[in-house]
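Hi support team,

I submitted a single chain yesterday and got back a structure, but I'm not sure I'm reading the token output correctly. Could someone confirm the output below corresponds to the sequence I sent? I've pasted both exactly as they appear in my results page.

Thanks,
R.
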Amino acid sequence: MTKLGDRPSSPRGRRRRQQLVEAGVELLGEGGWSAVTTRAVAERGGTNQGLIHYHFGGLPGLRAEIARRAGELVIAPVVDGVLAARDTREMLDVLREAVPAITADERIVCLSVQLIAGAVSEPALGELFRDEMREARARVDEHLRELHPRLSEQDREGAAVLLAALVDGLVLHVLLDRELPVESALTTLGRLAAAVEGED
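Hi R., thanks for writing in. Yes, this is the structure output for that exact sequence:
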């Protein structure tokens, strides 16, 4: 029988829930979605399978929370860096640091691949990951509004989409070609952005 202290809304219950999610993220990074089973997560989390049903309603609910947490680990560092940038130059500096950091982190690379795989194979995970990406772009859009108040809504939205696609594309290409001239590409982009800003 589950103790009252393990109720989902209690501090102990929230800690247990987070513990199970982190265990699932570890398994996802190690073996992909096929490794994320109720038994494996319970064993890694040092608890019984019944608590997974109690806290998440079963494996689909658990997998959704694992995908949400994995998405945070993959997306948040880049978005937070961009939101801290005070101008376009600093945004590009964020990317100069972020792309090598992402491609050098095997765990983040594995989680990124599995998030995409899950999004493609499972509609529920795809919808969740899509919403996470939309939220990240909306935050970037709002930051661009503060930095460039004269930009139209359409241009801000387009810039947020391009920025997200730029990160994803550079990471993919660097994984395929470690000699990719990322610095040159970002320097060129900086010059183009400066020219556009000068015309604004």
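A quick pointer for reading it: Residues 3 and 13 are 9 Å apart (CA to CA). Let us know if anything else looks off.

Best,
Support desk
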